[in-house]
Give the backbone structure.
Amino acid sequence: MKAKIICTFLLVNFITLNMFAQDPVLKSAFNGKNLKGWVVPENNIWWSVENGILRAKSGPDKKGSILWTDKEYTDFVIETDFRYDEGTVDTGIFLRNDKEQIQMGISGSLKRDMTGSPYIVGKKYPVEAQNVKEILKPNDWNTIKVIAIAGYYEVWLNNKHVMSYTSDSYVKTGPIGLQLHPNTEMTASFRNIKIGKM
């Protein structure tokens, strides 16, 4: 029995190492000109493109919005540059559904920056990303990379690993979304959005 457990452990580790050793090819998911490749919300006033930058800006009613990819993904990596521009920025990357995301900016519930941390509906923030205060560049461009393999999530901020978490409530396949949180006044920018299949 003990030998079987050890063999299972070694096999899982071998598979995991193989997945991470094979760097996926990242393809541009944002052309810098328009919202082609994304599902534009009806009566869109929140998402705009200018000079190669995707901008998320709160509307007058603070309704919020999610910009979803028009493709669905199973295991993937997404990488994007981002910048917190104005107001209390509360955004994030939704992972295949609107119940699990990687937070970016100020958490509405905790009232502090939780960039890189997973927010899971029903569990809130089960873990917190590490050393973000030292890594994040305020009012400047930063780069976040998120890997999602089933319910296993990894996050890098400016090329530094900040978070690992395994969710037991993940959705197997779905689109990737960028969030503009409701009930806040904010502007955030994204550029160089790339996605690769694992």
User: Anything to note?
Assistant: The longest helix spans residues 2-21. Residues 1-12 have pLDDT under 50 and may be disordered. The chain has one domain: 27-52+64-197.
